[in-house]
## 1
Amino acid sequence: MSQVETGKKVPDFSLPASGGETFTLSALKNKILVIYFYPKDNTPGCTNEAQDFRDLYPEFSGAGAEVVGVSRDSQKSHDNFVAKLHLPFKLLSDSDETVCKLFDVLKQKIMYGRKVWGIERSTFVIDEKGILRHEWRKVRVKGHAEEVLGLVRDL
């Protein structure tokens, strides 16, 4: 069950980020945060999603928002993915699944006939005060970044 609820303050968290940095939610001052969770670096859907957020990043930034992506991949994997796609935003490594559990994005999936736990593609918008304003679950990539940008502009 999710520990975050729309309209409530999101608990502070820190995660290792691409570029050897650490991302801490409370350090993000006066910015809206778009945090998107995705299954795995260098897979087709995740690549398309990252490219969509990359291509719209100047508009997110202009609207006062920061974008970060989260998966269970390592920092090294994230660094390679960022370099390959020229991403202007950080990817966060949640290898111990702490933040994935906080947002309740781990779901049981069937892969090659076996049940496995994986990240359900999800996006959350947190306002400048740390309040969760909107969430999307079971995201379909096509058109999603544009939809998120529309909501950010309305905040």
## 2
Amino acid sequence: MNTIVPLISSGVAGPLGVLHLPRLWLKASLEARGKLAAGYPGAGKGYDQMVIDALGLQRDAVLAFIKEKRPTYPQFETWIKQQPGVKLDKATVEKLNSSIRGYIHDDDTRKSVLGANGLPDDANAPKDAVNLDNLDDWKEFHEAVLK
């Protein structure tokens, strides 16, 4: 069976304006169908859990909805808006998005990602997790599909 590297960046938001939410939907959807590339969690403890917690969602409910209903991304956002206690106000979304944009990987992770991509760890190197994760995804995709 072919598996898929999730190429939607954590820096992408859907119509609700929530960064990483499209990536969470994609990863959980792929995992629910047994199509998520090895090494990627369907819903991990990093950005995935940050989004779930910040929006006031229940992790098990999110994953069950995706697994059972196979929603399109807009259907997923519609479901989110219907959840009791969901927090989609501007301040909550801006605080979450700022946390995502501002998250910095530890030095070892940064060095590992840059090294695997043949990039120097210098003043021009990305430090933020979104860009480092993008580099990691693109490398994984290249190795799995294009090499």
## 3
Amino acid sequence: MLKIQQMDPSTLKPWEDNPRINDEAVDAVAKSIKSFGFNVPILCDQKFTIIAGHTRWKAAKKIGMKSVPVITLELSEAQRDAFAVADNKTGEIADWDYPKLRKILENLKCKKINLPSLGYSPGELQALLTQQKEFDWKAFEERFKTKLTSMYVLLPIKVSMETKEIFKEAIKELVDEHGIKEKDPAKAAGQVLGVLLGVSQ
């Protein structure tokens, strides 16, 4: 049976080789802890090196917590590293059922729950709470029948919030890989799409 003990965050050590970048999530997690408490223990090895829970640990220190719940696991260094990677990676596999999520958020909003405390930005909340409409292909086509005053036209696209950083990084990598010199990010992204589709621009 796993034993939970309360420990001073300063006695815990971060995994120095942690490949997960989590600084941008600290403020959101700190808000969640303030609203709902520290309800998920930090996992560490027998040397008090954090295995899972780096963001919660940083958030706890940021808001001045003197003790946090900790579970200590007896693991070898290789087991610790493997578990830490698996814990982060498996969390990426799940996806959202957005209609269900929207319904839950609307219900929480009606019950006066502070939705930003759930970790969403105002823009994300607006997108989630806005009822999606059927795509208007006719209006999409009409944009190209209009006389253009520029050499470029803006094509609106949407990607899920979970994949936006992946898309951004992929575009940056392809811009560098193909030697694209365009300074306008939108034009550079268009050129990347052109490369992928084999369309010269």
## 4
Amino acid sequence: MVKFLYRLLWFVGLFLLQVLFLNRIHWFGVATPFLYIYFILTLDHNMSRSQLMLWAFFLGLAIDIFSNTFGVHAAACTLTAFIRPSVLRMFFIREEKEIYEPGMRAMGSSVFFYYVLACTLIHHTMVFLLEFFSFSHMGLLLLHIGASTLLTVLLIMIVELVRHNR
């Protein structure tokens, strides 16, 4: 029960941070941080895929409702949650019986960085492909994906460093 309440607190906190502050940031008109995916990336590794996808879907749906984006974030979060276990196994091998929360403490900083980078790139590619819904401006699309990915990864690493040093 305590773990569930802790998760719910992170869910609400990252949701509020995203919709109240971070959605208004557009550095140079191309980079928008989507820090809320930190919630999806740090859920326990042994959580079932369906449970993970439900958490992700509802987080994305909540972001969509308050951002007026019509399912873009729900789709991207669900895809990220679906792919996350495979990406986690690709970057970090551990015994299945051991329960851990992906992060710098469990994975090490460089492995965690690459894991976050891969998942964030998948998420942002989906978000901007659905937002643009066209390949006619490929350069601008790639600029949005790249800049937003870098900004989001930077913010996630800062949050993880603060949590890790507690």
